[in-house]
Amino acid sequence: MSDTPMQTDHATPSVVNNIDTPASIAAVPENDDVLVSSAASVGDWDGRWKHISKVLDRPGPFTEEGWTGGQETKDFLHACKILVIGAGGLGCEILKNLALSGFRDIHVIDMDTIDISNLNRQFLFRQADVGRPKATVAAEFVMKRVAGVNVTPFYGKIQDKDPDYYAQFQLVICGLDSIEARRWMNATLVGLVDEDSPESMKPLIDGGTEGFKGQARVILPTISSCYECSLDMFNKPTTFPICTIANTPRLPEHCIEWASVLEWPKVWGDVKYDTDNPEHITWLYNTALARAKQFNIQGVTYSLTQGVVKNIIPAIASTNAIIAGGLGLLEYGVCDRTTIFISLR
Ligand SMILES: [Zn+2]
């Protein structure tokens, strides 16, 4: 992570595909020759958006009479300027989905650099990218893989940008892990709304994941309930009753809590344990393990000890993929509504 924000210019999108990436994220045309010849000029080829048409042109049970298919929505997708906030686990999925579902003018903000531990799920990054800004690398990767898509990265904080910057987008999608950042974004978008100018209302599509759980929802600033309205709905961090920890442990976590909350101060006094100090973690692990043996509890490991004392919730790639898929459906829903909205004006 760096405190120095940096605007990075991106290269012209290339149509050459990279071989070292999963085929599932490539926009694979029926015929590779078509990609090279026609995509070189317009970034499009015959049947390129067939998969989108399957979704947008199919009437559903609630389709109004006289509905003639989603051409307007498709045109809107191609023209829409969309902002993605966060290029991490969820952000990679969101960017991939947007690029493959017809969005062409994508902007992405992220203040982080790539860590080796990201690579198992943040699939737009490779080992050689470790240490580079996530936003920049994600933009380069998507443009290299998906013809005709422009991704503009910003390596920095959302707070570095002023309201005028946010006013240029039609849609904002958040894939953040910080509640503070979401609250800031929500407040900024609510603040942008001018009653006399319908375009000033920027729908915010918010996604979040935590282990196996996740959420995807739309906030229409000043129209629907906003982020601030629903802060109470968040999961509180898991805690265990002290009497269970002290007297009747049943889980390996209870033993670890016993070691860190009750035994550590007895033995170490005023010294606080440091969750990044391997000696401290080892001490907690051995103490918890002895406790677990005494109560015949299985499952105390070094990494669990570290996870419990650092309150680590493992990031799960499948959860990110599912939530990003949900966000994609919401994007389509919002775009559909937006185009109707625009056409009614
Ligand atoms: Zn509210």
From TrEMBL:
EC code: 6.2.1.64
Name of the protein in question: NEDD8-activating enzyme E1 catalytic subunit
GO cellular component terms attached to this protein's record: cytoplasm; nucleus
Described purpose of this protein according to its UniProt entry: Catalytic subunit of the dimeric E1 enzyme, which activates NEDD8.
Ranges for domain THIF-type NAD/FAD binding fold: 73-327
One function term, GO molecular function aspect: NEDD8 activating enzyme activity
Keywords: ATP-binding, Ligase, Nucleotide-binding, Ubl conjugation pathway
Pfam family, one: ThiF
Catalytic-site annotation from UniProt: 243
GO process annotations (BP): protein neddylation
Lineage, uppermost ranks: Eukaryota, Fungi, Fungi incertae sedis, Mucoromycota, Mucoromycotina
The organism of origin for this protein: Jimgerdemannia flammicorona
Family designation: Belongs to the ubiquitin-activating E1 family. UBA3 subfamily.
Reactions listed under catalytic activity: ATP + [NEDD8 protein] + [E1 NEDD8-activating enzyme]-L-cysteine = AMP + diphosphate + [E1 NEDD8-activating enzyme]-S-[NEDD8 protein]-yl-L-cysteine
